[in-house]
Amino acid sequence: MDWMLKDLAESVPQTRHVVVLSSDGLRIAQHDTEPDTADRLAAACAGLQSLSRSISDVFPGSSRLLKMIVIEVDGGFFYLMAAGSGAYLAVAADEGVDAGLMGRRMRDLVARIGSHLTSPPRSTADGTAI
């Protein structure tokens, strides 16, 4: 998966971090990102997923599933996109990033390798899902 994450990072100028995470906020993979930074981003994404479920309640008939979040802050953008069942793709980029290009590249990556980004539910030693 590393080369695919590298391709995303290198094909969109101004990309800082690319992280794949599970729905419970655990880092699965990263490209050119320190493990501590990747872990911090992954953990923060668990909170964003919870927030998106709460917000989805205002949309009647919503499945409550997060599709994509974009956050713009002074200095850059943060993107979080569903990337298969139980997995997400997170990207941080500088403020000069082409936001449209980033969204398209992320969608292309998820479409290409979505099944590889799926994180199955964790289970206990006796096989019970947690």
TrEMBL record:
Residue ranges annotated for the Roadblock/LAMTOR2 domain, each copy included: 2-93
Q: Which Pfam families match?
A: Robl_LC7 (PF03259)
InterPro entries on file:
Mycobact_SerProt_Inhib_Rv3364c, Roadblock/LAMTOR2_dom
Protein's name in the database: Roadblock/LC7 domain-containing protein
Q: Give the lineage.
A: Bacteria, Bacillati, Actinomycetota, Actinomycetes, Kitasatosporales
